[in-house]
Amino acid sequence: MVTLLTDAADGNAAVNKSTGNQGSLPKDYRPDERVEPTPKPDFPHHQYPRWIGHKFNPDGQIMPYPGNGVLSPLDPASALRRSLQALLNDLQQQDFASLYTFLPPSSWHMTIYEGISDQIRLRNSWPADLPVTASLKACHALVATRLADFEHGLGAVVKMELAGFEPLADGIALKLLPATSDGDRTLRSLRDRLSQRLGARHPGHDNYSFHLTLGYLLRHLSEKEEARVAEFLQAWQIKLPPSFELAVPEYCVYDDMYSFRRMFFLD
After folding, report:
1. Who contacts 217 (Cβ-Cβ below 8 Å, separation ≥6)?
2. Cβ(214)–Cβ(88) under 8 Å?
3. CATH number assigned to the domain comprising residue 215
4. E strands of 31-107, at which residues?
5. Residue 122, phi then psi, degrees to nearest 5
6. pTM, whole model, 2 decimals?
7. 204 is in which domain, residue-wise?
8. Tens of pLDDT along 201-235?
């Protein structure tokens, strides 16, 4: 049976009351528990999954969504990368493929620390000593300065295990877990230290769910569609390598979800 886990709390701050259109909030909007994009007053968010209208438009076209973060890209030479490429090829041939917009393999990664989003300018999610009105360029520069001498402390290897798939409400993503309790403590400690160094701590920080996203859902699934997608993923889950090694963390900036530009490796 495919493992579909409950949503992780990896969130943001309270609802932005300035939208003046609370009836248009997306389904299951939980800004106190996880990162939520700031609603737009001119978009019917309630009709779509939460990232549509922000990262992608309803037709699946890429939208600007600039920011920065600490990521671990998936090694192009890894067995997991090859298996996920085959999974993606299969996904794109399915009858439900039009329900999704898929990410290019070059952008596949595991987020270690969510970093800063230009579209989520809330106090807890922005560097403490930088005004939330500061330019994104200034934010990129500040974060780069703060991380220039930052030691990740992960050691030579951190092995991650595949623990099934994340819930299907937002898209298709692998659920990832450190293979050992020591690895989990090390990764959680790294997130804590990054948060302290940058002075930004997203709500839900302690319960962040490590994952690797393959695609975003364009509209809410019916029960029949969800069962169909879950059945497909169940068949694929046993074909994927059970584990992989985490790559060296990178400080990256991005303009959208298709390209993450490495600024430098963390020491």
Report:
1. 49, 52, 99, 100, 168, 169, 170, 171, 172
2. yes
3. 3.90.1140.10
4. 67-73, 100-102
5. -115, 150
6. 0.89
7. 66-265
8. 998 899 999 999 999 999 999 999 999 999 999 99
